[in-house]
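Quick log. Single chain, no ligands specified.
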Amino acid sequence: MPWVYLVAAGICEVVWAAGLKRFGFTPTWGGALTVVVMLLSFVLLERAMRELPLGTAYVVWTGIGAVGSAVLGMAMFGEPRGALRIACIGLIVAGILGLRWSAPEPRQESVVTRDGSTEK
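-> predicted structure:
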């Protein structure tokens, strides 16, 4: 489940980056939605980091955001599509996959309940 949270957080990062480009922090519905999706991205990242290593979670989150934003920028905002740029995006994807495949199994943290007992 932590990887699902992490991918969703990365997708939210792409959405808020595009929203920031399109709407900024203006007092509009688009600007408000940008802020909401930004907060959701952080909440989902925090959920993923409960079970994944900090370095892995953060790098994968920013990598998904970087790749997704670069591709979205090329598709929607007319940003350059040069071969070197696309190759560099491919290197980021390779790094994300490498971290995913080399990450240890998610750990289950114990949680202390109100009655003082612990559970996983």
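Residues 2-119 form one domain.
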